Known about the structure:
By secondary structure, the chain is α/β, with parallel strands linked by helices. The chain has helices at about 1-25, 30-45, 65-75, 105-115, 135-145, 155-170, 175-185, 190-205, 210-220, 225-235, 240-250, 255-280, 285-290, 295-305, 310-325, 335-340; strands spanning about 25-30, 55-60, 80-85, 120-125, 150, 175, 210.
Amino acid sequence: MQVLDLSIRMLYFMYACAIIIRMITLIYSSEAQLAKRACDRLVKKTLPERNEWNYISFNMAVTMLKELASECESLPFMADKKVVVADDCAFLAKSKTKYKYLTDDVPESLRDYVDHPNEVVDLYLLVYSDTLDEKNPIVDILKMRNAIKEVAIPKPEEWMAYATKFLGAKRINIDNNALLELVSRSSGDYGVFANELEKYACFASPGDTIHLHDVESLTAPKIEENAYQISNALMKNDVARAMAIYKDLKTFGVEEVPLIGMIAGQIRFLEQVYFLDGKGLPAKMIADELKAKPFRVEMALRNLYRVPPGALERITEELYEADKAILTGKATPRFAFERFLANFDIRN
């Protein structure tokens, strides 16, 4: 009889835990869009139709924890169930600096709510980080209840399969060259990749195929690669080519200050290669020393053969002046950069 009573209590405990898990879920990912999509999928299962009575979302960057807890404790109005989404719960993420709560907030209020949640409210806590603060009592409680869901960023080799599946669900095709170019232009940023797929889904109609020229016209190119191409053109004194690349970038709204910084970085790399080459190091040793690809070092050495002494220092100074003119408001970003290119001559 005692064994039976124990079994019943265990079953009741497991059932109670299952309810709690379903009522509070912490979703975390370093990519915000992935966490939000995972949350949307879970919400749709329990709340197929949202309205102002059964669904509420808070931006926790500007919302007090006591306000969130109060909303969760209140019963739904004109609905049997309510879903509350707490967006950007940075206070649950691991950080080198201590999280500062809003003035007059009461952090313990949310912890107390998590201990005794409302049975008719589903609470989703979204954290945009790849690690959680294990010392936070809320994280500790939800971890014990197995109520934490990590959404990992897909590996690069999985991106193409995802894109085909995502667009295929909308009866939109994408050819392989276009897909490869999209992956390249996403620069390893899954958020950019996913946003571009959303844009293509709006751009195309069912039955359409997205081609390479569509990607080239709709998706901004990798700015790092274009900065590299501009610096290569400048080393060849091909100002027209550098200007053409820059104007293509402007069609995608690329800003001049980061572009200048990247070009300056390319020039610094050339200076380092020039210094090590002057010490008699072969290309492979230079690549190892700078932790760079051998091909990049080979290209740098070819460019350096055309560069007059002192030219790299002069280019760096001219880039600095263009950057300074922008930041001090003496010239518009576009004017400052175009003036830099128009006055450029590697021989002087």
